[in-house]
Design brief:
Distance between the termini: 42 Å
CATH topology: TIM Barrel
Strand order of the largest sheet: 1-4-5-6-7-8-9-10
Bound molecules: iron/sulfur cluster
């Protein structure tokens, strides 16, 4: 199998066959992200993709789920994605789902007809790094789309029958934009009904623009307590049926449940977790690398 550079996948894709369709990230300028800074964006050839599919089809395990990597493989044209889907149908007739990372702008460049055709080829359950639905936060992050654009494109995906998982960054607006970050994101979740919400907590990586802004005092970071309150507000505000996946290692209180049935259980779990963290930790900014190990 060919993988170029570091390959990232969400934790819930651990059992999927990772198939390289692109290298790096076509955007690669989000102000908080350092994941693909050392990679030039490239499109993988159909010949190589076919070679990889054939190689993995000889393994004892029959993959019924394939996850296209890297950062935004859905940037490929509808025609190329259909060719990949057809090749998978030919070589993996048992494959039920072709999942992928997608940026909001990757959806914009597909027609409704293309989205339906891709759904018919088993494209489904896309992971989308929304991060926030606040226009101010999206601008700070240089995500390259607005709240309105995100809502429009997510509803187009849903109309085509393609379900999706949204990444949300807790603490992503800092102190200044905390309220709108969470409220706009709750509204987006309730309007578009993702099948899963994947929360991670704000991290600052040296070499990124946002790290520099924080160093200069232009982005004031939440304390751990504020971040946990954002999680509580998010959980309380979501009123659609969805999976709440708070198991990224950056979550100080790891949680997973299905909303709305598990809402009270998760809120209690959160309160219980907070009660076990020392005040000196809660009232300070998060220390990168120790989250998930704060509970006594
Ligand atoms: S956050 Fe996603 S879209 Fe933005 S630069 Fe990183 S990988 Fe690319």
């Amino acid at each position: 199998m060919k993988y170029t550079g570091t390959t990232y996948r969400p934790p819930y894709e651990a059992d999927s066959l990772l198939l390289q369709a692109t290298v790096g990230c076509s955007h690669n300028t989000c102000s908080f992200c350092s994941m693909y800074r050392d990679q030039c964006f490239k499109v993988e050839s159909l010949e190589q993709i076919e070679k990889d599919l054939k190689e993995a089809s000889t393994w004892p395990r029959k993959f019924d789920r394939i996850f296209l990597v890297n950062a935004d493989a859905f940037v490929l044209s509808g025609a190329k994605l259909k060719a990949i889907g057809q090749k998978i149908a030919e070589l993996y007739p048992w494959c039920k789902t072709i999942a992928t990372n997608a940026r909001i702008t990757n959806i914009t460049n597909k027609t409704d007809q293309e989205l339906r055709e891709l759904r018919n080829l088993n494209f489904n359950e896309f992971t989308i790094g929304l991060e926030s639905a606040s226009d101010n936060v999206l601008n700070i992050y240089n995500k390259g789309y607005s709240q309105d654009e995100a809502r429009t494109q997510l509803l187009r995906l849903r109309k085509a029958g393609i379900s999706f998982f949204l990444n949300i960054i807790i603490g992503g607006g800092g102190i200044k934009h905390s309220s709108e970050h969470i409220q706009d994101t709750i509204d987006m979740v309730n309007d578009t009904n993702p099948d899963l919400i994947y929360t991670s907590y704000m991290h600052f990586y040296p070499g990124t623009e946002l790290y520099e802004e924080r160093e200069k005092g232009n982005f004031v970071e939440n304390t751990v307590r504020m971040n946990l309150k954002e999680t509580k507000d998010l959980l309380s505000g979501v009123n659609v049926s969805t999976n709440f996946f708070g198991l990224h290692t950056s979550n100080p209180v790891p949680m997973y449940g299905v909303l709305p049935n598990d809402k009270e259980k998760l809120l209690n779990q959160l309160e219980e977790g907070i009660s076990q963290i020392q005040d000196s930790v809660l009232d300070n900014i998060p220390q990168t690398g120790v989250e998930g190990r704060l509970i006594k």
